[in-house]
Amino acid sequence: MRLWTLHPRYLDAKGLTGAWREALLAQKVLSGSTTGYTHHPQLIRFRQHPQPLMAVGAYLAGLAAEADRRGYHFDTEKIQETGNVGQIEETDGQLLWEWAHLGGKLRKRAPHLHQHPGGIIMPEPHPLFRIVPGGIRDWERGARNLG
Prior knowledge:
Layout lengths: L12 H19 L12 H4 L4 H18 L18 E4 H18 L19 E4 L15
Helix pairs in contact: 1-3
């Protein structure tokens, strides 16, 4: 499960649709509709939010907005709870780690998209996240071997 901190505009089509499916799964986990993935580390920041289902709903809405911008259709009727929610704090270290991780994925599956747009050094986050100083999160499995 990958619930990107990055703004969905940076994802290729496969990444955007994958994020949609995985966020729908996260919604099921948070609502208690499934017993799988209940301890997945990507859910920690949503579980810590005062309104976890609304937070994942806001995340899904951000993905759907990007899909609409590209002319795709994601069924927003699948979003269980919507509304204004407070942003989730995420670190600049986490955002940059994901930026590099996405670059690696794009290099393999979509080389024409691999060059990050416009030489961006600090990418924008998904609208649900507010970036604060800090390192890569402890829950980030792929970064555990870096330290």
